[in-house]
């Protein structure tokens, strides 16, 4: 190869190296620009969130001393209090208020009538709400246990309020009340509760807890409002988990109710949840006895083979997937099990007479346990 050819070849290689270096610099510059944009974007979002929250905890109007009479009803939750304050222009954002008091671990809010104004800071408002005086003595308490169906809850309410259970049920299912509650709780009571196959719209939505009432003869709406507020408060803690699983509120309360109704004190509810999910993933019907009893409107200890023939969308022996809606109310443990089930290969479970629940991977294994433990 001649000297001239060698020189030409070196020039070509050098030119390519220059081009590659130029490309590398360009790539680094692009990466740097993208990184800067991302940092600025994230910073702007974080900064925007910070300034929004900072603004939300400031007085609505520092110069406005005009006083307002604010009524905080008995049994109001932090969510309910925040909505009342926001509606009356005392705070800027009910949700920020709620998380602020949770972060500060503020409790002990009292019902009553308060004189507040838009110039007050959130700490001042909180202090006022904690020093109020109850205007009435406790009249009665309602304890709603976990796993109770709407008809049973109606019976509990009836017993405490001198109403008949039929009267309470009629009011709980009154279309005008349901419509009013849906407007009041749009994120909780959605169109799902009006599905044509739904037995009772409010089934599963009245949270199990003990509620205190300080008023003689409260209306049904006044009785169940704190129960719905409690459901909102509880579910609010699981918003991220619900989104990750792709659950609507209705779906979560539905599967949680199935877990609740199948559970015993000795059972691992996360395992029951895993069985339900495994069955749905393989296309198997859930085949859970409580849904059959719910379809029949009965409460009995044993489900017979003839019971399984009832033609109802709630009968999970006939229809695959979830029931149209909840079949009872569910507690926190069952809700958490629905959101964080165990990872297992179980497809069957069997409750023994002692309350123990046995899990199996195959039908053969399940039948063997059934023959041994169920007489």
TrEMBL record:
Ranges that cross the membrane: 30-53
One MF term in the entry's GO annotations: lytic endotransglycosylase activity
Major subcellular site: membrane
Class in the EC hierarchy, top level: lyase
Site feature: Important for catalytic activity: 262
Topology of the protein relative to the lipid bilayer: Single-pass membrane protein
Gene3D superfamilies for this protein: Classic Zinc Finger, Endolytic murein transglycosylase
GO cellular component: plasma membrane
Location relative to the cell: Cell membrane
BP GO annotations: cell wall organization; peptidoglycan biosynthetic process
Keywords, sorted A to Z: Cell membrane, Cell wall biogenesis/degradation, Lyase, Membrane, Transmembrane, Transmembrane helix
InterPro entries given in the database record: MLTG-like (IPR003770)
Catalytic activity, as annotated: a peptidoglycan chain = a peptidoglycan chain with N-acetyl-1,6-anhydromuramyl-[peptide] at the reducing end + a peptidoglycan chain with N-acetylglucosamine at the non-reducing end
E.C. number: 4.2.2.29
UniProt record similarity statement: Belongs to the transglycosylase MltG family.
NCBIfam families the UniProt entry points to: endolytic transglycosylase MltG
Function: Functions as a peptidoglycan terminase that cleaves nascent peptidoglycan strands endolytically to terminate their elongation.
Name of this protein: Endolytic murein transglycosylase
